[in-house]
Design a protein that fits this description.
Layout (H helix, E strand, L loop, with lengths): L1 H29 L4 H23 L5 H21 L4 H23 L10 E3 L6 E3 L14
Antiparallel strand pairs: 1-2
Helix pairs in contact: 1-2, 2-3, 2-4, 3-4
């Protein structure tokens, strides 16, 4: 129980600080005409997204990779929406699609897939053949099990 509380507190602090920093960066971005501030802001938001995915899924070994990929996706998305003279709703659609693709790729990479449960077997006393745990009769000699 205490371990779960510690985990919740750890994520709560990480997310509060992360979203606070992202909010501050977004505020600075909206008050700035500097194009580099926008690239840095989007890269920071992407990096935070990657870090959050690594921490939430418990894949600490992939933390650095996910931060780099998230930052790259953020910078690329800013480049794509800044280089096109399109409506703002379409820019946000492009941005959402890119971050959605990022999340989908990361989730696919992190998914280990379910391993089949190991089949419990034992050896038949009469013939020595391997028999499943739930089998009632030996497939080799027909001996009945209890």
């Amino acid at each position: 129980m205490i371990a779960k509380i510690q985990k919740v507190l750890r994520y709560l602090i990480f997310c509060a600080i992360g979203f606070g920093v992202v909010g501050a960066v977004l505020g600075l971005m909206h008050n700035s005409e500097d194009e580099w501030m926008w690239f840095i802001g989007f890269a920071l938001i992407g990096a935070f997204s990657g870090a959050a995915l690594a921490l939430v899924t418990g894949r600490y070994k992939m933390l650095f990779k996910l931060i780099l990929v998230g930052a790259a996706v953020g910078a690329i998305s800013r480049y794509l929406i800044s280089s096109a003279e399109i409506e703002q709703w379409l820019q946000m659609t492009i941005l959402g699609a890119l971050f959605g693709a990022f999340a989908g790729v990361v989730i696919a990479l992190l998914d280990k897939g379910k391993k089949p449960a190991p089949v419990k077997t034992f050896e038949c006393d009469e013939c020595g053949r391997m028999v499943g745990k739930d089998d009632k009769f030996c497939p080799g000699c027909g001996t009945e099990f209890e």
